[in-house]
């Protein structure tokens, strides 16, 4: 069954790539290309997301850029931080950067500005690396850095923190959502699921420590596909993991 997943990826990519040069639709996906001068920002984009209303968000150097299908607007970081991740939710637009994370909130005039959530983090937990992933969880958000996870429930907290010993052999590699489940790949510990505010291990999901997980997505028959950076794809069926 895993071979079918691989075939789907391979077949989709050439079709999408070919559409960009097509003069007519030909039944292929339409692709719009936005060069940096179209959104007025840095060419290096570290994160991108689309919310349920269709708005597109880009996390780039010094700003978050928002596209409504017609025009771009930019929210400039006051500290010229490199934005690493962003997500738009009904509760707000959450962002992560180098050692900081928070939400975009409107000023009295309606313009968005950056609001950091660091004041809700205890001082011993404020020394963390870049926040490279943000997920919408409940009425708040989950922020992931290499050795720290921050769960913000929204509406004033309290904020919850998980941390790992800082070592080359440890790391919160990836978080993802599949079928309403919030999942985590922790190096050396395997896959975990967020349940009632705590992480519980999924049996038989541990990978070799040299396998760094890049993404978690849905698989056949209710299983999960675990994408690694160097070892290819693995299939988790609820009781064990196979390549």
Any idea what the CATH architecture of the largest domain is?
A: 7 Propeller
Which structural class is indicated by helix and strand composition? mainly beta
What's the helical proportion of residues? under 10%
For the sheet with most strands, the description reads: 4 strands, antiparallel
Count up the domains.
3
Element pattern in H and E: HHEEEEEEEEEEEEEEEEEEEE
Question: How much is the average pLDDT?
Answer: 85
The CATH superfamily of the largest domain bears the name YVTN repeat-like/Quinoprotein amine dehydrogenase
User: What's the CATH first level of the largest domain?
Assistant: Mainly Beta
Question: So how many helices?
Answer: 2
Beta strand %: 35-45%
Kindly report how far apart the N and C termini lie.
11 Å
Number of strands: 20
Strand numbers in spatial order across the main sheet: 1-2-3-4
Rg, please? 19 Å
Uncertain stretches: 1-23
What is the overall silhouette?
globular
CATH topology of the largest domain: Methylamine Dehydrogenase, Chain H
List the helices and strands and how they pair.
Elements: H1 2-19, H2 36-39, E1 45-50, E2 56-60, E3 63-67, E4 72-76, E5 83-89, E6 92-97, E7 100-106, E8 112-116, E9 133-137, E10 140-144, E11 148-152, E12 160-163, E13 172-178, E14 181-186, E15 190-195, E16 198-201, E17 213-218, E18 224-228, E19 233-236, E20 241-242
Antiparallel strand pairs: 1-2, 2-3, 3-4, 5-6, 6-7, 7-8, 9-10, 10-11, 11-12, 13-14, 14-15, 15-16, 17-18, 18-19, 19-20
């Amino acid at each position: 069954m895993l071979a079918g997943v691989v075939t789907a990826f391979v077949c989709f990519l050439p079709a999408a790539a070919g559409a960009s040069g097509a003069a007519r639709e030909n039944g292929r996906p339409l692709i719009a290309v936005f060069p940096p001068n179209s959104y007025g920002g840095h060419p290096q984009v570290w994160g991108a997301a689309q919310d349920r209303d269709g708005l597109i968000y880009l996390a780039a150097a010094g700003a978050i850029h928002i596209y409504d299908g017609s025009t771009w607007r930019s929210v400039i970081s006051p500290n010229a931080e490199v934005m690493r991740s962003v997500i738009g939710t009904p509760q707000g637009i959450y962002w992560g950067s180098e050692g900081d994370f928070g939400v975009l909130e409107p000023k009295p005039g309606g313009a968005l500005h950056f609001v950091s959530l660091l004041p809700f983090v205890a001082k011993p937990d404020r020394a963390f690396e870049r926040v490279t992933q943000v997920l919408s969880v409940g009425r708040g958000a989950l922020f992931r850095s290499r050795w720290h996870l921050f769960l913000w429930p929204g509406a004033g907290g309290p904020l919850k923190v998980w941390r790992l010993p800082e070592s080359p052999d440890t790391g919160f590699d990836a978080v993802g959502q599949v079928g309403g489940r919030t999942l985590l790949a922790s190096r050396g510990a395997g896959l975990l699921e967020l349940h009632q505010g705590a992480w519980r291990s999924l049996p038989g999901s541990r990978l070799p420590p040299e396998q760094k997980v890049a993404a978690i997505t849905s698989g056949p028959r209710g299983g999960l596909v675990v994408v690694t950076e160097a070892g290819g794809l693995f299939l988790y069926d609820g009781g064990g993991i196979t390549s």
